[in-house]
Amino acid sequence: MVDLFSAVGGPAGELRAEHLNFAYGTHRVLHDVSITARPGRVLGVLGPNGTGKSTLLSLLAGDLSPTSGQVRIGTTAVTSLSWRELARLRAVMPQNSTFPFAYLVRDLVAMGLGSGNGAARGNGAGRGGGAARGNGAGRGNGAAGASTSTQNGAGTGRAADAAIIDAALRAADVTHLQDRDVTRLSGGEQARVTFARVLAQRAGVVLLDEPTAALDISHQQRLLELCRRLAAGGHTVVAVLHDIQLAGALCDDVVLLRHGRVEAAGTPRQVLTSELLTRVYEWPIRVETLRDGTIVVVPTTATTTATTSEK
């Protein structure tokens, strides 16, 4: 039985952002952002629209380079790594997956093996026998751009890779879709396929951008459970989330961004408070904690937004 949830080679390294600044042209997006994501824990990144959450995730992934500051996995700066080295260390689920070609689902998931963390380094375990070439699945957003050109069909290695793909499809509940054209799937189905590719990549650091946005409630809960299992297996997991209540259920640690700066960081109980959320989202929000520790977030009716902003 393939174990997708124990980090390959033992617990992943810490993921650290140190005094990050970033701008698109003259528009500054992030200001002196420092965060730490630790192996065995899930870190949630929250904040209003346009506050820099997805940009921060792209910097953590090494897909963007900061104007100043540094991102490290363990002691290694991500900017010093090649795409192939990055793909071995971290897997990324983007907010919006784009599929420029009509890949079969199984072949798309097989692209995750190109990181080198699979048994046969992506040597043709998909239906098409060559789908791990990485010719269009998104630069840096998975292992697709880092696959080896080896297509030797090595018997035992190929069988092991096929087992990894099967396990990833099963975990993400997309086995029944494996022979379908990914461009013909619903948004939620495509999101689950992309998550399956992340699982197949078997990188120690897992970065997720709005992973539950397109999912129904049962698949949201399933994905949250899988994220918890990844963390329990020694992975470092970072998730950008809009659903504050889901963040309370999923995350061990939370970073709250406001206007591109860290407004607060800590455990969900420390950060997800009525006062902080009301100030950051500029809308009155009531937070209650149930007897079992569940955090319940309730937006309330505001008389005026201005009154809220002045608090």
UniProtKB/TrEMBL annotation:
UniProt-listed PROSITE patterns: ABC_TRANSPORTER_1 (PS00211), ABC_TRANSPORTER_2 (PS50893)
Disordered: region residues: 123-154
Location of the ABC transporter domain: 15-284
InterPro entries associated with the record: AAA+_ATPase (IPR003593), ABC_transporter-like_ATP-bd (IPR003439), ABC_transporter-like_CS (IPR017871), P-loop_NTPase (IPR027417)
GO molecular function: ATP binding; ATP hydrolysis activity
Coiled-coil stretches: none
Domain of life: Bacteria
Region forming the signal peptide: none
Keywords: ATP-binding, Nucleotide-binding, Translocase, Transport
Compositionally biased region (Gly residues): 123-143
The protein's name: ATP-binding cassette domain-containing protein
Organism: Actinotignum timonense
Source species taxonomy: Bacteria, Bacillati, Actinomycetota, Actinomycetes, Actinomycetales
